[in-house]
Amino acid sequence: MSIATLSETPQPPSSKSPRRTGRLFALTGAVVGVIYGYDMGSISGALVFLSRDFHLTEAEKGLVNSILVFGSIVGALIGGKLADALGRKAAMLIVAGSYAAFVALSALAPNVVVLDVVRFLLGAAIGISIVAAPLYIAESTPARIRGASVAAYQVATVAGIVLTYFVNWGLSGGGHWRWMLGLSAIPAALVMIPLFRLPDTPRWYVLKGRTERAVEVMATTDPDTDARAEVAAVAAALAKESGGSARSLLRKPYARATLFVVGLGFFCQITGINAVTYYSPQIFEEMGFTGNGQNFLLPSFVQLASLAATVLAILIIDRLGRRLVLLSGIGTMVTMLAVLSIVFSMGDLHGATTWVGFGAILLFTAAFNFGFGSLIWVYASEAFPAQLRSTGASVMLTADLVANLLIAQFFPTLMAWAGAAWTFTGLGVLAFCALVFASANAPETKGRQLEEIQGYWRNGGRWPTPDPDPDPDPGPAAAPEAAL
Question: How many Cα atoms sit within 13 Å of 133 on the Cβ side?
């Protein structure tokens, strides 16, 4: 029996209360996000010890990180097609099973070659996850809370990273890098249980022509809406689209949307957030902090601040809007990278200067999660109509992962070659370019229905002006014009 078939075996959603169904959606999305965050961050501590065991060079350290990102690119490229063919839910079941298997195997790797192969496969699962999970959440959530619901996935991801650093700190005394890498296999296996009990999204059922099933699920996931009218609107939007291929993204009216999402995805990572995630112990050592106690515990406080920033973004994203959150986050990143450039240019660091650098790293990471981190998932799920949504998300996140690959592979080498001051100066220039790009291109989609957002891109990046209400009683003078 296939995963797609198994995913249809639970009780119909009408047998569950909307409150219970909502809790299950929230639970599965949160757990998948936590696992993703843990698996992304666990290498930061493990790398210190496995580098000694396997005698890795700087380039080989970069490869241990970048091979996972390369696998993520492959996963993101196929994630959209997989989510369309088998369903958003079936794709997430594949992800959960792959997480459980590959993190366990990475903990048992006898040498760096095996570790790299397994991390490539784990990366492929991550790539599918970052396409399928936000789609699953966005397409099952009412418009009024969709931004916060998708951003909650980022909260869970940051929570996973926070957990990583505390686990790394706890295990650093014995250098237990295998436990650092392998612990997330347990929740990955357990999350499959609630996944089996949930339906797929109403929009995916419409995409597959299963209208009655879509109405049934829509009534459960959003009981305040007219399920049949909403499903009819989704079907009408699908009927207007020519297809879901990547080629369609390059044609009008969505070429502009494609430019936006590719640019946003690339800038999200090229500005250096995963340099902190992957290499924070090395960065803090460069600042002058010494010992595992500081270099493993300090990143935990950085990520706790990031978690608080992400929660704050969720609280205001559907009230103040996407643009304010995004632009203020990027602007703070630019400022903090400038501070880091100055700090590292001062030579040997000690005393207050060291703590200024720590504060800049903390605020930089928090600002990323407040802006880019919270909005990347929202825009990836909102920018395109239903039939192009998964393909568009794949393209956006592929651009994101290509930039991530460059940071993962070359950051340690660049730090050794150019020095920390010039490295962070370069990241600051890129962050400023990101601010200009986002200011010029990011739409405000607060409170808009997913299908309504199509009109923005069809109108050349402007919200259409609604036609004025017709005069109900034009009078006799209008008769000759009406005859025309």
Answer: 35
